[in-house]
Amino acid sequence: MSLLRVDNLTMRFGGLTAVSGLNLTIESGQIVSVIGPNGAGKTTAFNAITGIYPPTEGTIAFEDRPQLRPFRAKTLLSALAIGLLVGVLSWIAAASVDDLWKAAIKRQLSDGVENFSYGTALRDGMAYLRGDLAIDKPRRSRTWQVVSCDGEVELLRGLTLEAATLARDRLQSGEYEFQDSQLRVIHPASGEVIFQAEDRDSLDRFRTKLVSTKQAGEDQARFAVRVGILGFLIGLSGTLVVWRRTRRSADYIALTGIARTFQNIRLFQNMTVLENILIGMDRKMSNNLLAMALRWPGLRRAEAECSKQAQELLRFVGLRADQMNLLARQLPYGDQRRLEIARALACQPKLLLLDEPAAGMNPSETVELMGLIRRIRDRGVTVLLIEHHMNLVMGISDRIAVLDHGVKIAEGTPEEVKRDPKVIAAYLGEEEVS
Ligand SMILES: Nc1ncnc2c1ncn2[C@@H]1O[C@H](COP(=O)(O)OP(=O)(O)OP(=O)(O)O)[C@@H](O)[C@H]1O
């Protein structure tokens, strides 16, 4: 079983092909280097392997498995839980929007409107009212109406608010005669016509069937349930879509056992040396919020253990104990590079990718770095290295792959690569070989 297998990897950025059809197999326990001129696509290949970019084409398998988060029962349960949460929230919102709408109308009218349903109002464009008489102004209407809900609803439209209020008060106080056949409201004593429909036909257009409170309630409940189901489906499918799109993420790939350092040092500059290493162990620490808040003894023990391992790593990469509490930015450049390696090792990787670790190092630091890389390999960690420093590469690599313009032009032992005419022409030059 190979540790890492890159098959036909192609990386494109718009019209630029940074890596083209790269095949690379890395066996456990080796130090493998990738070399090539500037812009050859080395870092891009690293970025694809570590999940920073998805491959445009091709596949990458680690320990013979594709670098994809597997679909587990937990994934489905999480999606169901989120779907349920969204569904319940949508249901609550749909059930309470009725009250909100009612409250808003009431604020406007400050009078009269009692029970009606948003769902039915949406459907029919008006409010159904229960109780006695109400003054209402249907949405989109400029005029007021008096609504009687005794049996059939009579809608008498086209009134001013004042006239409607007067009419309602008189109707309620009993000083009225409601002549449905004539569609007039007449004051019984004075015979004064309070209001009268213009003609029967126009009133019939506004006649509508009373929806009982019960039916309106049922409509509303159905409406809320439908919205709830829709919310559940949206929550469930949304979660699954997000999960699918983030299946191949850098953090998942790091968890499977691939760690890296960067060409331009990327430490947490304002954190201490020790904290930088502890961050590399973060994924192994408990993420139980309660345990963290209550500082459970188990958690304290785990923290103490991590701190011990971090100090061991500090020594391993050649940093001193008295540098432990310095801020990362206070370290000399070469030590910052060591710290980055220590942080990567803190993830306990099986494969460590080092992107130009010797950049900016002086010759004696470079020699020490060679020793460190060998010790990392002896610790059981396979190393994949990008480096321009030829003495280092030729001195420690078991195998070397050479990229030029995104294409692998050679691969072999240092001796084989050194003599390869294509490599000499593209990268090494005659001087390096001699
Ligand atoms: N995110 C990106 N968007 C667009 N182009 C990119 C991106 N990343 C890399 N490239 C381009 O891809 C090509 C390969 O770049 P890459 O950094 O992989 O080369 P390299 O071999 O690592 O070079 P160096 O030795 O200088 O680090 C370059 O032309 C670069 O400009």
TrEMBL record:
InterPro entries: AAA+_ATPase, ABC_AA/LPS_Transport, ABC_transporter-like_ATP-bd, BCA_ABC_TP_C, P-loop_NTPase. CDD domains: ABC_Mj1267_LivG_branched. GO terms for cellular component: plasma membrane. Keywords: ATP-binding, Membrane, Nucleotide-binding, Transmembrane, Transmembrane helix, Transport. GO terms for biological process: D-alanine transmembrane transport; L-alanine transport; L-isoleucine import across plasma membrane; L-valine import across plasma membrane. The chain crosses the membrane at residues 75-94, 223-243. SUPFAM superfamilies: P-loop containing nucleoside triphosphate hydrolases. The keyword Transmembrane applies. PROSITE patterns: ABC_TRANSPORTER_2 (PS50893). Residues 4-430 form the ABC transporter domain. GO terms for molecular function: ATP binding; ATP hydrolysis activity; L-isoleucine transmembrane transporter activity; L-phenylalanine transmembrane transporter activity; L-valine transmembrane transporter activity. PANTHER family: AMINO ACID ABC TRANSPORTER ATP-BINDING PROTEIN, CONSERVED COMPONENT OF ABC TRANSPORTER FOR NATURAL AMINO ACIDS-RELATED. This is ABC transporter domain-containing protein.
